[in-house]
Amino acid sequence: MAMYRGFSTLQGNFSSTKVVDTELVKRDLLNSFAIRKGEKVGVPGYGSGVLDLVMEPLTEEVKNLLLEEVTSTIAQDPRVALQQLVIEEYENGLQAQINLLYVQSNESESLIINFDRQDGTVS
């Protein structure tokens, strides 16, 4: 039985919008990275400032700001705990390599999240 239930209409797949457990948590994390702070009505602290930093050169100062933003965005979700985080440049932007612990199931997973400079997307 699923611990978490939700839905997603990502990529136009409207025939099966039900998402559960770890897939739902990952989708919610990607959404929170894609929403800038202050954009969600009624929840001004929700979201991330990562997309505001993507266009900056990856200096040590910017890298530290990115680490703080990614860490605080993940900390907003009580269903996961951050175990490890590495941020690097890749050809079209920045890439976060994240090791997460799903708190309820005590499962670990590695995620790679790309923050694209060209179109400002998160994938």
Structural account:
The protein is an alpha+beta fold. The protein has one domain (5-116): Roll (Nuclear Transport Factor 2, Chain: A). Helix content is 28%, strand content 30%. The protein has three helices and five strands. It has helices at 21-34, 50-53, 60-75, and strands spanning 5-7, 18-20, 80-90, 93-102, 107-116. The strands form two sheets. A three-stranded antiparallel β-sheet has the order 3-4-5. It has a two-stranded antiparallel ribbon with strand order 1-2. A hairpin with a 4-residue loop joins strand 4 (93-102) and strand 5. The radius of gyration is 15 Å and the shape is globular. The two termini are 28 Å apart. The mean pLDDT is 85.
What is the fold's blueprint, element by element?
Elements (H helix, E strand, L loop, with lengths): L4 E3 L10 E3 H14 L15 H4 L6 H16 L4 E11 L2 E10 L4 E10 L7
Antiparallel strand pairs: 1-2, 3-4, 4-5
Distance between the termini: 28 Å
Q: Describe the strand arrangement of the main beta sheet, using strand numbers.
A: 3-4-5
CATH class: Alpha Beta
**What percent of residues adopt helix (DSSP H or I)?**
25-40%
The tally of strands reads 5
Q: What sequence of helices (H) and strands (E) makes up the elements? A: EEHHHEEE
Largest sheet: 3 strands, antiparallel
CATH topology: Nuclear Transport Factor 2, Chain: A
> Spans with pLDDT under 50 lasting ≥5 residues?
none
Shape: globular
CA-based gyration radius: 15 Å
Residue-averaged pLDDT: 85
Please tell me the total number of domains: 1
